[in-house]
Amino acid sequence: MPTLVELAAEHTSLSEDDVAHLSALISEWGMLADFSFADLLLYVPVVSPSGTNWLTASQVRAATGQTLYQSDLVGEYADDTDRPFIAAAAQSGQIQKGEITLPYLSDPVNMTAIPVMREGKAVAVLTREVSTVSGRRPGQLERTYLSIFDDFATMVATGLFPFTGRVADASVAPRVGDGVIVLDGSARVRYASPNAVSALHRIGIRANAVGQSLAELGFAHDAARASFERREPVVEELDQEHVVTLLVRSIPILKRGARAVNVIGGVVLMRDVSELRRRDRLILTKDATIKEIHHRVKNNLQTISSLLRLQGRRLASDEAKAAVADSVRRIRTIALVHETLSREPGEDVAFIEIVRPLIQLTQESLQSSDRPIRFEVRGDAGRLPATIATPLSVVILELLQNVVDHAFGDVRRDGVVRVFLQRDKQDDALHIRVIDNGVGVDDQFNIAQATGLGLSIVRTLVTTELGGTIAMRPATQQELDDAAFNEGDEQIGTVVDLRIPTESAH
Ligand SMILES: Nc1ncnc2c1ncn2[C@@H]1O[C@H](COP(=O)(O)OP(=O)(O)O)[C@@H](O)[C@H]1O
Ligand SMILES: [Mg+2]
């Protein structure tokens, strides 16, 4: 089905501002239809060789009444014999009312044709079309709503509706069926619909509302008065100790006087959004709880690493000291992930934010400053769930630590290690390459047979926890060139390639 904007662009000579005015009108007109208990249609003038014709640009049915048209009329033409009041309304700039008969309907149709005025010009015609034998017996609610519709119709015909400026978010706005309060010109309640009365009861307002202002009724803030002063709709949420929440939208009814535009009344639509908000709050507290847990895990891990460090200081053997120091680093690595998780909402982290502190952690273990090693990160890994980020951090720590421990030996050379991260969306995997320009591993090196604790941890985490693959070998000249190493002539270097599937990480 074509949209109003498409239809207008293709068939009419309406300006962009005219079309924006009409779009604003139809974003609000569900409310008008509900107040009118009828179908509303919007006709735009189209200039054809046979003169002006009218194209149905939009249609809305009332949630409060029966529809006259089972089919969709958008995109169909209406001519003057069919609907003579449309042309009359557009020409006179006045609301026209009358009865028409349509060939496909047995009963005559009551039609109200309202010129949609913008800057003194009728840019379209809005009609209310309802069967003359409509079954609804008018009670107080019906009479009140119809009179409100008439007020809004007059606003449309005098360019006061839709309101200019901010566009209201129609998706959460209360509807007429949710509850209506009708206000007089001094923002006092003239009528409250049964649903509105129930909504008021839920927030503890039991007094008879008629004759009172919203503030007198116990509203924390008088949205109605605010909308009267600003002459535009005001949306507010009324919260009764987090138990009941009412979403309130107050719309002023304006009338052009001889000299000025006056506020002659208003409507307040209200909807009980307690359940919605309760769920919002639940999600918020859940999020906060998860963050808090990550925070505590991080603290506990820090305590453990501190205890270990204390113990390490008392050891005499260098080997034992080194082993404990390694463990301390591994624990701190895991703590890092939890720290990042405790800062961000959700269960995933931007992995780059872990890689950087990991590098820092490794650098701290570089004792002698006469052997500088430069660490560089290229690319990005995107966001990863904690289930991947945690083991992967330990893997990267081990690899970086090995570069520090083994790659440069006694060689006096400016060491560089580069970490390349690449998220492959197609293949749903993360590719990581850690490459250094150190002494290299020998050709026969096979990580599958490596017996050191560090590489054993790496191998186990990659293949079992992460379901990925790992390769470790001497770097080729090409790889060193690709990694932009140009520090010396004969270079060897080690390259480690990881492929980690990320199916579960989206
Ligand atoms: N980047 C590297 N450059 C050179 N040799 C390496 C590199 N990474 C690992 N190695 C070699 O692999 C061995 C095993 O490493 P690992 O399992 O971490 O044990 P550890 O670090 O405790 O010696 C190291 O002892 C070293 O010989
Ligand atoms: Mg190691």
Structure write-up:
There is one protein chain. With 506 residues, the chain is an alpha+beta fold. The chain has four domains: 154 residues, GAF domain (Beta-Lactamase, 2-Layer Sandwich); 97 residues, Beta-Lactamase, CATH 3.30.450.20; 72 residues; 138 residues, Histidine kinase-like ATPase, C-terminal domain (Heat Shock Protein 90), CATH 3.30.565.10. The chain has 13 helices and 18 strands. The strands form four sheets. A six-stranded antiparallel sheet has the order 3-2-1-6-5-4, with helices on both faces. Strands 8-7-11-10-9 form a five-stranded antiparallel sheet, with helices on both faces. Strands 13-15-16-18-17 form a five-stranded mixed sheet, covered by helices on one side. A hairpin with a 2-residue loop joins strand 1 and strand 2. Helix 2 packs antiparallel against helix 4 and helix 9 runs antiparallel to helix 11. It is elongated, with a radius of gyration of 36 Å.
Summarize the structure.
The protein is α+β, with helices and mostly antiparallel strands and 506 residues long.
SSE layout:
Blueprint: H1 4-11, H2 16-36, E1 39-48, E2 51-60, E3 77-78, H3 84-92, E4 96-100, E5 109-118, E6 121-131, H4 140-157, E7 180-183, E8 189-192, H5 194-202, H6 214-217, H7 223-230, E9 234-240, E10 244-256, E11 261-272, H8 274-313, H9 318-343, E12 348-350, H10 352-364, E13 373-380, E14 383-385, H11 386-407, E15 415-424, E16 429-436, H12 453-465, E17 469-474, H13 477-482, E18 494-501
Parallel strand pairs: 13-15
Antiparallel strand pairs: 1-2, 1-6, 2-3, 4-5, 5-6, 7-8, 7-11, 9-10, 10-11, 12-14, 15-16, 16-18, 17-18
Bound molecules: adenosine-5'-diphosphate and magnesium ion (MG).
